[in-house]
Amino acid sequence: MGFDQMQSKVAHSVKVPRLYKVAATIFKNFEDGKDSVKNLVFNCKKHPNTKAHFALVMETVNHRTQIDKATLKIELFVTEPRFNRHLAFVLINELIWGKQTLPGESLPIQTVLKYKKRLKKSIDMEGGIDGRALDATWPRYARINTLCNNSHRIGKQLQEEGWMEVMYDKSEVDSKQFLKMVSSLKETQYLADLHITNLLVFPPKSQLYDHSLVKDGSLMLQDKASCFPVEALAPPPGSSVLDACAAPGMKTSQVAAAVCGDWEAALGGEPPAGAKVVAVERSIKRFGILKGILERSMSNGVTEVVNQDFLKIDPNSHADVEYIVVDPSCSGTGMARRGGGDEEPSTERLDTLASVQTSLLLHALSFPSAKRVVYSTCAVSVVENEEVVAKVLEKAAGWEVVDIMPTWERRGLGEFSDGQNVSKERSEQI
User: Fold this and answer.
1) Relative to the CA of 222, which of 4, 9, 107, 320 has its CA 20 to 30 Å away?
2) What pLDDT is attached to residue 335?
3) What is each CA distance from 208 to 191, 205, 219, in whole angstroms?
């Protein structure tokens, strides 16, 4: 065995530091449109250093266009075809913009270091947006989980901790006035959201992830955009709801709270008669995350968790389901722009996603007792939104798009007949 072969064997046996491996997984899940960077990081239990992960992933998202162009220019993945792309991006970001050094002798780290000079020459250092600085301008959201607590007790505890709620009359405030109120929040102030039930708005940089109310499930760290589908679905207490693409579980826990009305699982007793949630998730890994969030939020008492592809579920086996939320995998362009990215997915990828999204929505409409179905994505492309709805309506007899959430002003595109009945959210407007 030659010396080079021996070095290669040793490098293969050395593990990549866990910080980078976990960051690469979070980065991949973000690019796959599974959730926002913040939620993916703070819901990840694989590494204790949450702040380090958030900074590393946000910075990688910030610089991914520059890294992508540089790796194409030097043909990194042509020369190193087995190199995991997401791990490579995280390591390159750390080497160029982060600590500017990489620890250890693992093969991925040695591979990046081998290309260090070529990468530095190829990377446009002027490009990119400061993703962490961008994120620092957004308000922080926390939904009151009525299965564990109520608004009165939560408000009292926050007041005791030095927080002050900014009070206002929702009937006298429009969206623009509300945004001004949000932007004017001081460090220890918060307010109730104008559009979403039980959602609290805190000023940017509020550190809530380790708050006692978050740890015990009383407050769920859920972005406002993520709350819209269930708010639009508006299932009444005692109803039966199915969440077709349930993981990671924030929306499912929101549904569970809605169907339980004023009942607090934490106080015992029985939920309203008929209150039931079916949470469907095909991925075994995400299925585990889903179960964890449902347990922490005390939603598991009314939720049946199903590890199966939604398209393979027989609608007649859930004949009592009246409300369905379909929030499928998408291009994630709405979240990507919030994270600082500006690249557009390929036409081929959009068409593939839209085909699956159309099938999922059509399947939801085939449930025999379904009377309201909400379809949502975290994408801004017309192909995944208005066009999917238009295609489905051509095939689904007896269904129509209805106006929802009249106080929300942003709507779909006017050239589509149902555009005004489609609610659209952009990060800078919520």
Assistant:
1) 320
2) 65
3) 15, 9, 9
DSSP class per residue in 407-422: T---B--TTSTTGGG-
The alpha carbons of the chain give a radius of gyration, in whole angstroms, of 23
201 pairs with which residues across the strands? Answer: 141, 191
Q: Which residue among the candidates 245, 260, 330, 378 is catalytic per the annotation?
A: 378
User: What is the Cα–Cα distance from 115 to 118, expressed in whole angstroms?
Assistant: 5
Q: Give the model's confidence band at 419: pLDDT under 50 very low, under 70 low, under 90 confident, else very high.
A: very low
- Per DSSP, 299 falls in state -
Phi-psi region of 128 (alpha: psi -120 to 50; beta: other; left: phi over 0): left
pLDDT per residue over 91-142, tens digit each?
A: 999 999 888 999 989 999 999 999 999 999 998 776 555 555 556 678 999 9
- Tell me the helix, strand and coil percentages in the chain, rounded to 5: 45, 10, 45
149 burial level (CB within 10 Å; 0-12, 13-18, 19+) = buried
CA angle 143, 278, 395 (to 5 degrees): 105
Contact 106, 11 (CB under 8 A): yes
In terms of Cα–Cα distance, which of 59, 61, 62 is closest to 29?
A: 61
Query: Cβ(148)–Cβ(264) under 8 Å?
Result: yes
pTM of the model: 0.74
Q: Strand ranges (DSSP E) for 216-302? A: 219-220, 240-243, 276-280
CB-neighbour burial class of residue 416 (10 A; exposed 0-12, middle 13-18, buried 19+)? middle
Q: Which of 239, 7, 3, 203 is nearest to 105 (CA)?
A: 7
Residue 127 buriedness (CB in 10 A; 0-12 / 13-18 / 19+): exposed
Distance CA 243, CA 246 (A): 5
pLDDT score for 3: 36
Number of residues written out for the chain: 430
**Measured CA distances, 394 to 233, 397, 409 (Å):** 22, 8, 27
Q: How confident is the model at residue 271 (pLDDT cuts 50, 70, 90)?
A: very high
pLDDT of 133 reads 53
Please answer whether residues 128 and 69 qualify as being in contact, where contact means their C-beta atoms are separated by less than 8 angstroms: no
Q: What is the DSSP letter of 171?
A: G
Report the SS3 class of residue 357: helix
Q: Is position 378 annotated as part of the catalytic site?
A: yes
